[in-house]
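Interim report, section 4.2 (structural modelling).
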Amino acid sequence: MKKLLLALSFLVLVFGLAACGEDTPPSVPTLSGVGNATITVGQSFDPLAGVSANDATDGSLTSAITVTGTVNTAVAGTYTLTYSVTNSAGETRTATRTITVQAVQPDPDPDPDPDPDPDPVGDFVLAQGFYDFKFAPVDVKNAFFGAAERWLLQTGAGGIPIFANSTFSLFSSRIQLPVENFVPVMGFGTGFATMSADDSTVRMDDGRPGNAGEYTYRGAFIFSPTTFNQWIADDSVSSDVNVWFLDSLYYFAFNDEFTGFDLLPSMAASMPIPIDSEVILGTVAANTWRIELREDLEWFYHPSINTSAFPEGHERITAEDFIGTYRLALEEGWFRAISGGGDFLNAAQRIVGAREFVDGEVEFDEVGLRVIDEFTIEFEFVPLMSEWDVSYWLSSMVMSPINLHLHEVVGASYGTSHTTIAAHGRMFIDFYEPDSIVRLRENPNFHSPNRTFFTGLNFQILPDPDFAFETFLAGGLDIGGVPTARFDEFSSHPELRFTPGATTFRMNLNALKTPEAQEAAFPGSGFTPEPIIGYQDFRLAMYFALDREEIARDLMRTAEPQMFHFTPAYLVDPQGGISFRDTEFGPLVGEGFSRSTFGFNEDAARALWMQAINQAVADGFYSPGDVIEIELVIQAASPAQALLGDWVEAQFERLFVDTARNIRVEITVTAAPFPQNYFNYILPGTFDLGMGGISGGTLDAAGFLSQYRADNAGGFTLNWGLDTNVAEIPVTYTIAGETFHEIWSFDAIHRALTAGVNVVDGREVVE
Amino acid sequence: MIRYSLIRTLWVFIILATVLSINFILLKNAPQLPPPTEEGRSIYYSRQVSDGFMTVRIERDPDLVREARESRPTFLNRLPRNSDFFHEGDQIRIFEPVPLIQQYFSWVNNIVTEWNWGVSTWVQPNVEVFEILMSRIPVTIRLNLVALFFYIPIGFALGILAALRKNTLVDNFISVFVMVMISLPSFVIMTFLVLIFAFGLGWLPTSFPSSDVTGAVQYTALVLPVLGLSFGAIASLTRTSRAELTEVLTSEFLLLARTKGLSQTQAVLRHALRNSMVPLVPGIIGSFVGLLSGSVIIELIYAIPGTGRIFIRAMTQNQYDFNLILAITAFYTVVGLFAILLVDLSYGFVDPRIRMGARK
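Predicted structure of the assembly:
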């Protein structure tokens, strides 16, 4: 019996093994259309165009072809692409292909009487002339912006984007928000929310239920507002409080579809009125604009303020209040009037004579801020402004008046407490105890009483975010920010609200390559840059080596992977209200950058590394057996940042190895506290790689391009060694029905989008 | 005694001036960096000018303007350390720090001649620093005094109990409690207390109420912070009083007291306790200073608007509120120094054999 069983088992084994084999030899797929090619800078190139794959068994496998490596059509050079296809039997065919991108050469000996239309090179010509796209159609701005951002990715000139910090919050069940998802500028529209239950159903800050018939929004801040004088406020908490008791000339309201916003008059009676206007590219522009004020504007004084000594009619808000406030702000040097971007001196909306007045060179009557009549004020700007520019600038509550009568009495103490201010917004501050609570109540004098549903707001100051969230969970707040440590617990909560961050954390780099270049850029720094970072292939290799999803979700927790420099929070065209990423131009930036994996492609990283090291060895920078020591400076901000440093170290040391020559990369992680990581390492150029990220005005994405300029125009350039004024960015755009194909430099694009620029051979020329 | 006290008080002010001067110099030399963005930097420097820490000037020399545009690092090298500049078309606006020594003497001058400690620059701009301090001291002092009156009787009682019942189950139990409480930092205890009694059981307020809130919550809100402050102090006092009393209980004069016919209770109350007080009373006064510093973290956890909160805020990196920090430092230093003086004087009261300042 035993022998029979043994024999049967043997037979089963033999048949089993035989069944595993194939009768016919496996087929190997074929790849065609992968010959070498040459194109010109600026020409479009699709790596899959004309490439096909076939297999004897599976038929066409073209759709299964994977391509590693990229071709930067903006930069002349030789690029290697690796094509790979695998059939159902697991057989893989790979092929490599070299694409040469030829440079566009400006005419070395220009015609003494040049043709106004330069000869095209390929499909593209080098941009020439004076450009100002401030009033250009949205698509033109987006096309230029997208081209500039793509160039940053392709060259690594802006560092390597990794993740953006996001925030997650929950609202109490009685809050009914007008929108489900975050809308730029409007957020979740908390100010426009309604409540399904009154205060008697919830616990207020004293631990007891509130009053029936009252609807008090209960929020929390980690620190107190610093001041209620909006002209000297420079913290988010003060802004969040001030915006409730201060009105503005214009305000943002949801559009009818609740997909974006409209900018509507609030203290103003109508939209701005241009004086001596001109029409540029379909937009009305003028240097002088008038604002008509509502005639029913009134101050609200806290009941404890004694106004008996104030002149008659002090309750009314007129043109004198506005211009008087502006004059006082300039005289006092209140920093919101003279700095910070939204001020009277900033180039974007510089007021005629304002800077000279601040510097004591002219009298106030020469400043372009005027009272026309009791309810009309006038602004005279240095630059041409559109209706949007003016109304957007005046939508800030900073530009609203302070109570000049009260200021006369309390002087510099204006805004230090709830009894040294007067309100003209939706609420007034009823009670304020620093580091404890801010209570706001409905302003009975507000001109549009139905603008908010809330009858009051309570902002508790809870310094510990974890306890603030506990307070929310215990029913004591209407909003709770989910702490990172508890994110997993609430990540699948159906009511979880996601707010995209505005700061892209990136790995900034020093691509100066040689000590000579370092000395020229940073005289006396004595730092020796790592040559490999000077190679574009290596910078791209680093780009593809980062698994942004893993970093954002597993290491940073409450972060979003960012393969682009600009998060969805940024708008190139604030008037349209659509994030740049959501425009048709947004996704084009990432073409060829493995968008489905947020730019993570290890094969591409390896291939590009090999190209870089081959070239670097050929150039004599490295020899066999070398260890390339790269210092990575991280922000010593949190344990997550340390994990990120460790992750990058392990990944780079694993991928960037040249076994044939025994050359490898070794990463040393140095932790530096914020902002020393910038000021001691990145800004003075004494680093190889450095983590960091800063944000700009989300409604002015183009303005934020200044942070990437090699000339450090914004004072906070974080990447070195790459010339941003080289004409190698192809841009296609259409104005007035005519389509242009031009080659631009990054700097020229930045200036054209934000101010005027003289462009010669595609480059910005500074007079 | 009076002469001694006067001399010591004079020394308090000399030490205070030294401490504040050292603090001033160290703080002003601490790395201070402007914010990253251009807008942020322009605000930062405008504030520095209005706060009197920097001066601004305009440079119109075309050569210098060109140099500044061509190489930022080179041009910055021309300026004093921590200077910065901004391009404004055909001119540049340069911000330069006021020399430290000048800042110091103007600060001293304002205090000495006008008793003007300046205004807050970051925490509550334009508010007199002493006004801020005065608004915070009552709550901090109230909390600490309640804690003091709470922990002393409990600490003594436990210490006496442990000493009298030395090496029994009661003593062992108290000793374990003491070890645990001394080992646990107050913020850990406070966190647990809040999580259990406020959020978990809902018996007590989850945070300190604002001053406009009336009713029982004003008092119930003191329970958790007082407990948070007291556990460590109770443990410490229990330990020292047990040790002192144990030593006194074995002393010869107590044996004499018993042999002359006093009962155990009479001997302990009349002789042992009073003698064990000698090292304890100064310790209690000193512990008030310890409580004050411990309350900083308790204030943060329980959202109490006390002096500790503003101290932490004023120390925010790159936003140092110098005037406020120095005023708070002065407050804590004065409290500390006078506490030490009181400790020294208290020896004389508790133990008549000791006379402070007596001629040798």
